[in-house]
Specification:
heterodimer, A: about 170 residues, mainly beta, 3 helices, about 45% strand, globular, B: about 170 residues, outer membrane lipoprotein receptor (LolB), chain A, 11-stranded antiparallel beta sheet, 11 strands
């Protein structure tokens, strides 16, 4: 499969509403699991971590909440940060993979296995480092994102959003 | 240079406030005009024969007579055949996304600050075209597919006061 075909699938992912579980392991030794919800073509999202930390953002603002701690709120939407944010994995056109100013870019060769493709990553600044992503060829999602900084994996990707999650997101939607 | 590296220049373009002039050839003949990109949602297309169309977050307007414009909903920059997308190539229909007819393919020919790639049709790989990218402006300079070709003849990092007045009608927040 040609790399630019995979690029087209990734840039074309436009989930109306999608929910996934994720695991993130950072080389600093921290790790977390949680649930990511993306609706309205990425304009509204919820990152609900199993350690009690919750982030959400939408046209009406951004909110972060720590378990048993204060809720911080901004009237402006918040963006995704980090190269392997699980929200950007469901909306890869927003991942930090496309510009010459981003640290990582896709590279050949693409290895297809069933409905997924593994694509190497190479670092642009500094050069010399490698990583990889695994892409769902049916939807364009990044299922697995691994670099020298860590690894994030999505599991249990399902279309739609639960009623409770939708209710929570009304605060920022 | 690989196609994905050229894509890095085109997909990463974020600059606003460009004006460019273009030449377009298709079965209807030769047309010239100018395009303006104020930002990703606010743009203008003005053909030298008097046709004017501009769009922003608050809607769009199309010139229907001298000094008369018809108002409508916002028009996406990525509309097929909209040369304004040359200035924000992320929205040009060349990425092989499900709604795109074309995707980039190698080999890449680099000449100075430009890179030329093949375009391959999404559903009929025997159909080919070409795209030339300006690696300094991170814009599309030339796009050629069977039956039509559009070329930018100059790019300026400015928007005239007259064009700004038009664009403010559909983007009043500016």
């Amino acid at each position: 499969m040609d790399l630019m075909e995979v690029v087209g699938l990734m840039l074309g992912a436009r989930p109306r509403a999608v929910t996934a579980d994720y695991t993130d392991d950072d080389v600093t030794g921290t790790s977390c699991t949680g649930r990511i919800v993306v609706i309205d073509d990425g304009k509204t999202w919820l990152d609900d971590r199993d350690d009690g930390i919750r982030y959400m953002s939408g046209p009406r603002g951004y909110e972060s909440k720590v378990k048993n701690g204060p809720t911080e709120r901004s009237d402006r939407p918040g963006g995704w940060t980090g190269g392997r944010h699980p929200g950007a994995m469901l909306l890869p056109r927003r991942a930090y993979l496309w510009s010459t100013s981003h640290q990582w870019r896709l590279a050949d060769p693409v290895q297809v296995s069933g409905t997924t493709a593994e694509v190497p990553l190479v670092s642009q600044q500094p050069t010399g480092y490698t990583g990889r992503i695994r892409v769902d060829l049916r939807h364009g999602y990044i299922l697995d994102f691994e670099t020298i900084h860590g690894q994030t994996t999505l599991t249990g990707i399902r279309d739609g959003i639960s009623g409770p999650d939708l209710a929570v997101l009304q605060k920022v939607r | 240079m690989e196609p994905i590296e050229v894509a890095g220049y085109l997909l990463g373009q974020r600059t606003k406030g460009y004006t460019a002039h273009y030449v377009h050839h298709d079965e209807r003949g030769r047309r010239t005009g100018r395009i303006v990109l104020w930002d990703r949602r606010t743009w203008l297309l003005a053909e030298d024969d008097g046709y004017v169309m501009f769009s922003g977050p608050e809607g769009s307007e199309i010139r229907v007579g001298k000094g008369r414009y018809q108002r409508g909903p916002a028009i996406p920059l990525g509309l097929t055949d909209n040369p304004a997308a040359f200035l924000r190539p992320r929205h040009a229909p060349i990425w092989g996304r499900p709604q795109h007819d074309w995707r980039l393919a190698g080999p890449v020919q680099v000449e100075g600050n430009t890179a030329t790639l093949r375009l391959v049709h999404a559903s009929d790989p025997t159909l080919e075209g070409s795209v030339t990218a300006d690696l300094e402006y991170c814009a599309i300079l030339d796009l050629q597919v069977p039956g039509r070709r559009t070329t930018l003849t100059c790019i300026e990092h400015t928007v005239s006061a007259a064009d700004q007045r038009l664009l403010q009608r559909v983007d009043p927040g500016r």
